[in-house]
Amino acid sequence: MPSRLKKIPLTIFQHFFRTETLGGLVLLGFGLAALAIANSPLSAAYNHLWEIPLTLGIVPHELSLSLHEWINDGLMAVFFLLVGLEIKREFLAGELSSAQQAALPIACAIGGMVVPALIYLIFNLRGPGARGWGIPMATDIAFALGALNLIAPRAPIGAKVLLTALAIVDDMGSVLVISLFYSETIVWGALGGAAVTLFILIGFNLIGVRYLWAYLLGGVVLWCFVHSSGVHATIAGVALAFTIPASSSEGVSSPLLRLENALHNFSAFVVMPLFAFANAGVKIDLSLQHAEIGFGILAGLLFGKPLGIMMAALIAVKMGVARLPQAVNWRSLLGYGFLAGIGFTMSLFIAMLAFEDIALVNSAKRGIIVGSLLAGLAGALMLRAGRPSRDVN
Q1: What is the pLDDT of residues 87-109, one digit of tens each?
Q2: Which helix (H) or strand (E) holds 63?
Q3: Is the peptide bond before 60 cis (omega within 30 degrees of 0)?
Q4: Domain that holds residue 18
Q5: Which DSSP letter does residue 324 get?
Q6: Per-residue pLDDT tens for 360-374?
Q7: Domain of 117: which CATH number?
């Protein structure tokens, strides 16, 4: 008889943590490379590269997009598929599988999304930057976990699990924000086709289809419909994830776990580095044009994230609906809150959805890069200062 997804063993979480840590370092390398090239004599060639068109498909059903669009709309759908799988697993058998376990990361994630958005709007309530309020809401799970492992490799496992769960709930909130506020004019016919495809995939799950190729083939069709509908194409990845069966049978791991394991390395070492290389290249200048956008993002990531996380955690704990993990105190939680201010990948992604004017995008990118860097440094200082009494296994 099939069984539901069992509680995730610690070894699987540790493998996930190691993958995200190394992936964060690779991501950093590609981001720095893009930044260096964009400020070198190769900048024109760098910018031209991403505008090269690439056509896939068979006439008359071919799709022609630039390399930049294929990466941001196509490859990033794979990243969002992995995000969806992680969210589903956490709700079934992870840190979000019970109200008591989920209370703290959910509260922290909500506080860590709302407060940065409000701080951003203080700088940009009126003017061309108002649409970018979602940018500082995001947490880059790979960078955050990578930074934690470098700064405090012997941090308590409860802290690592909390930061992971917080980032996953944060991703869920970012997906919701993208789908509701950063989609284009809806093409209802295409959206209807996406809905029919999704219902078919759900039907596969209900009747017990366990062949991953059937879901992945349906996922390609779903992506094409969503891409044509005006809803951002990456949302198809999240929707597909929730149709993948999570039950295991006859000693064989579930399709969800098999697909998640298969996608981890591809996402960490191919998709996200390519995304960073294609999007992190921004000219470093001292121009104050649209500086309020950059300052709003910087303040949201550096101050809004830890403030929102601490306020929400304090309320949840004082109300008795949550408690701090073992060996985690308020000082160390503040350090993890700063690390959650490393927004990079998802923040860059939302910035390009929020703005069409390249000047606005570049100002946002500068705010994201500087804000993420300062948040990481602040987290490092906070956790290093408290390490002797709290870094235990």
Answers
A1: 888 888 777 778 877 899 999 99
A2: strand 63-66
A3: yes
A4: 10-50+66-183+232-390
A5: P
A6: 999 999 999 999 999
A7: 1.20.1530.10
